[in-house]
Design goal:
A hairpin with a 2-residue loop joins β3 and β4 (61-68). The protein is built from 1 helix and 7 strands. The longest helix has 8 residues, at 3-10. Helix content is 6%, strand content 34%. It has a domain at 26-70 and 84-123: Sandwich (Immunoglobulin-like), CATH 2.60.40.790.
Length: 135
Amino acid sequence: MSDNDHFWRGASPRAWAPADWNLGALHPRADMHEDENGYEISVDLPGVDEQCIQLVLDNNILTIWGQVAPSKPERAGSFHIMERAAGAFRRSIPIPAKLDEGRVSASFRNGVLRITLPKAVPSEPGGKRIPVESA
């Protein structure tokens, strides 16, 4: 066996994994886009059943939880390579502006979760005037 063969046989598969793989932990990739109306977050969740996704918005932090089911062989035998990750994941994304929480929405299609987060309407300068009515 050559020196090169010894090197590859001894190499850990984790050594060649993407940096965000984090030793097998699931970390879904996301994009967050902002315009004058709000934010749209797209999260890649291939292989995730939409029933296994939970979203929570608390103190302008959006937290996404989910579960990727382990793959099951379709026929008898054993795996020679098993690289697709399975298990639970959690991702928290801070949102930089006040939101209109009553209009936040989410959809899931073709393995992509899209969350729409409308910005709150700015309050009147100098605060909101409150009319006083006579009794």
